[in-house]
């Protein structure tokens, strides 16, 4: 599952994804007050990602910028999740290596045309809801 | 009810116009206990079908539940309409008569017992009234009039008996209708009895066995079912299934679930809407499906909180 279309394109990611990345990065930094933000555009990633630490948290979290106009699919989620641990090994400073499939999570930062950004937590597996 | 019995597997699952039904309470509790499927009770009152708080038999299974039971070898599908028609047509006259006679006999015994008790009671009552009237003779005609009226009224309750007794002897060739006939009734049983509704056992079905259609949500249904979740239809919550971590009578559901194809495209707005839907009811929105290798993968979406 890990290979399909995710590895080594010569030009890593198209321009519009970098644009999205910028909007979400700015939003996280100045509106949501995240710190230790860094941008990941390794060619091994199907999409560029942002990592950072929320103001009330201590753990690094992953953010995947997407556009509201995009269509999504299970395959795309799987490709992004499958690329996550590799990134930890690639020396991006991930201190906790998540090996099991179940329990990995990231945030989708959904950008709309009016530059509103909303955040949704996506976890792989059967992640019990926080409030239940 | 008697002590719980475990029905023999495979048990019949009745197919009526694309609904998969279970009629037998024993099978229903077995399916819930052993196969972790709760289904939906659908039986309501024929005269008040909008009464939908307390539903009874039959139990309707989701198509996924029916398919999984068939695949496990726990159940087999019976075309109910076909079987019912054949059952009626193939019933021998002798069997039919014997069944009707037995039923008649059982009913009659019950009713005769009932009538006997009523008459006993009436006797006591009439005797009491008679004694009273004997005391007040000066009432004259009025008193006797009333007395006679009472008797007449008492007899009309058991119309047939009084009619038959007063009828001329010409009718006595026909078995005399008794008091019981007036009170005889024939309830419609909730469960069909084998006399005319004997489902064919699987090894008697000559044609290829019926198999519920495999839906797109089936791989996800099966995946969650195998992990101990109870799933129920989710239309009322805006999704495909509700996933409970155990029996729905004991647990709140954790997930509102949608099954997708691996490459099925989904609008980002639906992802946002799904996340909101789940979070709004303190659950998570789960989507999942089968990848190219037959493995099922699931993802849960919740609102990020900011």
UniProtKB/TrEMBL annotation, chain A:
Signal peptide location: none
GO MF annotation list: nucleic acid binding; tRNA-intron lyase activity
GO terms classed as biological process: tRNA-type intron splice site recognition and cleavage
Record-level GO cellular component terms: tRNA-intron endonuclease complex
A Pfam family reported for this protein in Swiss-Prot or TrEMBL: Sen15
Keywords: tRNA processing
Family: Belongs to the SEN15 family.
PANTHER family reported in the protein's UniProt record: TRNA-SPLICING ENDONUCLEASE SUBUNIT SEN15 (PTHR28518)
Name of this chain's protein: (Perigord truffle) hypothetical protein
Native source organism of the sequence: Tuber melanosporum (strain Mel28)
Source lineage: Eukaryota, Fungi, Dikarya, Ascomycota, Pezizomycotina
Automatic annotation (TrEMBL), chain B:
Cellular component GO terms held in the UniProt record: tRNA-intron endonuclease complex
Any GO BP: tRNA-type intron splice site recognition and cleavage
SUPFAM superfamilies for this protein: tRNA-intron endonuclease catalytic domain-like
Annotated active site: 244, 252, 283
Gly residues bias (residue ranges): 133-146
One GO molecular-function entry: nucleic acid binding
EC number: 4.6.1.16
Location of the tRNA intron endonuclease catalytic domain: 218-297
Xref: Pfam families: tRNA_int_endo (PF01974), TSEN34_N (PF26577)
Domain of life from the UniProt record: Eukaryota
Region (Disordered): 127-149
Swiss-Prot/TrEMBL keywords: Lyase, tRNA processing
Segments forming domain TSEN34 N-terminal: 12-80
Database matches in InterPro entries: tRNA_endonuc-like_dom_sf, tRNA_intron_Endo_cat-like_sf, tRNA_intron_Endonuc_cat-like, tRNA_splic, TSEN34, TSEN34_N
Family: Belongs to the tRNA-intron endonuclease family.
Physiological role: Constitutes one of the two catalytic subunit of the tRNA-splicing endonuclease complex, a complex responsible for identification and cleavage of the splice sites in pre-tRNA. It cleaves pre-tRNA at the 5'- and 3'-splice sites to release the intron. The products are an intron and two tRNA half-molecules bearing 2',3'-cyclic phosphate and 5'-OH termini. There are no conserved sequences at the splice sites, but the intron is invariably located at the same site in the gene, placing the splice sites an invariant distance from the constant structural features of the tRNA body.
Listed name of the protein: tRNA-splicing endonuclease subunit Sen34
């Amino acid at each position: 599952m890990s290979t399909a279309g995710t590895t080594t394109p010569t030009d890593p990611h198209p321009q519009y994804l970098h644009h999205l990345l910028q909007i979400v990065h700015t939003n996280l930094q100045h509106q949501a007050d995240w710190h230790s933000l860094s941008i990941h555009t390794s060619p091994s990633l199907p999409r560029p990602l942002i990592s950072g630490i929320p103001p009330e948290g201590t753990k690094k979290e992953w953010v995947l910028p997407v556009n509201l106009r995009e269509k999504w699919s299970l395959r795309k989620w799987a490709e992004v999740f499958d690329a996550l641990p590799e990134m930890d090994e690639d020396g991006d400073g991930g201190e906790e290596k998540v090996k099991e499939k179940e329990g990995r999570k990231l945030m989708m930062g959904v950008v709309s045309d009016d530059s509103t950004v909303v955040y949704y937590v996506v976890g792989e597996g059967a992640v019990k809801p926080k409030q239940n | 009810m008697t002590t719980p019995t475990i029905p023999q597997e495979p048990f019949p699952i009745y197919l009526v116009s694309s609904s998969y039904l279970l009629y037998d309470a024993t099978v229903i509790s077995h399916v819930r206990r052993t196969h972790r499927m709760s289904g939906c009770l659908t039986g309501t009152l024929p005269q008040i079908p909008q009464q939908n708080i307390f539903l009874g038999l039959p139990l309707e299974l989701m198509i996924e539940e029916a398919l999984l039971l068939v695949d496990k070898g726990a159940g087999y599908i019976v075309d109910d309409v076909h079987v019912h028609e054949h059952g009626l047509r193939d019933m021998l006259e002798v069997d039919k008569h014997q069944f009707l006679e037995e039923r008649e006999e059982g009913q009659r015994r019950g009713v005769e017992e009932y009538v006997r008790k009523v008459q006993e009671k009436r006797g006591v009552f009439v005797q009491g009234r008679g004694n009273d009237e004997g005391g007040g003779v000066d009432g004259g005609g009025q008193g006797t009039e009333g007395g006679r009226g009472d008797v007449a009224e008492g007899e009309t309750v058991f119309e047939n008996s009084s009619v038959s007794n007063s009828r001329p002897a010409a009718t006595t060739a026909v078995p005399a209708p008794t008091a019981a006939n007036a009170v005889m009734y024939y309830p419609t049983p909730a469960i069909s009895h084998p006399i005319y509704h004997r489902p064919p056992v699987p090894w008697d079905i000559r044609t290829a066995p019926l198999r519920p259609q495999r839906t797109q949500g089936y791989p996800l249904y099966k995946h969650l079912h195998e992990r101990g979740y109870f799933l129920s239809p989710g239309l009322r919550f805006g999704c495909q299934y509700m996933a409970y971590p155990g029996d729905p009578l004991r647990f709140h559901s954790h997930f509102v679930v949608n099954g997708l194809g691996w490459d099925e495209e989904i609008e980002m707005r639906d992802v946002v809407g799904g996340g909101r839907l789940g979070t709004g009811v303190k659950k998570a929105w789960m989507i999942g499906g089968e990848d190219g290798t037959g493995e099922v993968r699931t993802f849960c979406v919740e609102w990020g909180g900011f």
